[in-house]
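Throughout our pipeline, every protein is held as a single compact record rather than as scattered files. The remainder of this section carries one protein's record, kept here as part of the documentation.

===
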Amino acid sequence: MIARPIRTEAEYKAALAEIEPYFEREPKKGTPEADRFDLLALLIEACEERRHPIGPPDRKSTRL
C-alpha cells in the first residue's frame, strides 16, 4: 500500500495495479475506499507530471 510520493518505477506500477480495480467498481463517496482511490489518483498524477512534464504550447505552432 503506497502512502507517500511515488519515487520508483516499481512503486508507480504498484500504484497503477492498486487503482485499477476502482475503475470497474467505483467506490462510494465518503468511504475509506473512495479516499484511497483519491489518494492513489493524486500520487499517480504527481508522478506522471514529474516524469513527463507538458510545457506550454509553442505559440508559433498554434497559429492558423
Summary: The mean pLDDT is 89. DSSP finds two helices and no strands in the chain. Helices lie at 9-24, 32-51.
